[in-house]
Amino acid sequence: MDHLTLLLAILYVYTVPCEEISWDTTVKLAKNMSLECVYPLADSVTQIEWFKIKMERESVAIFNPMFRGIIREAYTDRVYFSNQTAASNDMTLTFYNASEADVGFYSCFLHTFPFGTWEKVIRVVPSDSFEDAGPPNSQMVSEPGENVTLTCQPKEKCLLEEMSWEKIQPQQIDVLISCNLSHGRSYTSKYPRQILSNCSRGMKKAFVTIPNVTGSDSGLYRCGFKASTGEKETFVMRLTVTDGETNTQYILFVASGAGVLLLLVILITTITVIAYKRRRRQQQRGPFKDFWITQNRAANNYRNTFPASPPSDGAGEDIYVNHPTFSRVPRARV
């Protein structure tokens, strides 16, 4: 019996780490970080307990609306419940002075009445392992209260094996839905918001519908595909939910920007036309100007052949003027 017990223990040690763990949220490790756990339904929460998932579950903290919260000794002065009101369904756990030792999987496990148990799994990763969304491929603007549908379609036309939707935030990534199309299974996460999506074999594109959107729904959404060939594709969309005033300001901003741009285009065009016409006039007047300068020079040379005042070498004598085309011509006697 002892050998059998030892064998079972060894098998447990080697099989548990290999079990696939599905998570609802990925959080980037930070000195001060919060693990969000909000129960989305209206029934009563009778008790909640936070665990860290290792070889076996390690209790971190427990909360009961009647007896309030207890933090386990290993986590004393390091974690606390962000909201400890008896009527709240928000059991977010906040860490301060977190370190690399806090990386791993955490479970927010609730007991509710009358629906029973409910669990959300959160994965904490080092900051250098946290995936950035990258620039969005498309954008959508909506007003509050509308039903918004985001769609994406893979470029490669091949059989899809997996599909997922995520909401990307600076410090965390929430899984909205994940589908294993080859096995016909879907996993709807514990995202605290009603989300509608398609998940069926042979699907060619994916969509997610967010009913009655509010400002908190603004952000980046990522759609991911995995084909049967192993190739992966992702698409990022930005959703902006604006109120009427913000939307009007946005329209006025765009209109004023377009007006300024139009004025700049007109100004640049006018300056270009004036400069072009001035340059043309200068080019056309150039030959005439050269001709005029040549004529002036010839006239000046002609005038310079005559002395400024007639020379006189004595009274009663003839005065002659030298000219290139005339012989000596006597002038009047003085």
From TrEMBL:
The signal peptide here is: 1-18
Cited SMART domains: IG, IGc2
Q: Where are the transmembrane segments?
A: 250-276
Stored PROSITE patterns: IG_LIKE (PS50835)
Coiled coil feature spans: none
Check the record and name the SUPFAM superfamilies matching this protein. Immunoglobulin
**Domain (Ig-like) ranges:** 17-108, 135-223
> What keywords are annotated for this sequence in UniProt?
Membrane, Signal, Transmembrane, Transmembrane helix
Task: Give the domain of life.
Answer: Eukaryota
Alphabetized Pfam families for the sequence: V-set (PF07686)
PANTHER family registered for this protein in UniProt: CD226 ANTIGEN (PTHR47011)
Can you say what this protein is called? Answer: CD226 antigen isoform X1
Q: Which gene encodes it?
A: CD226
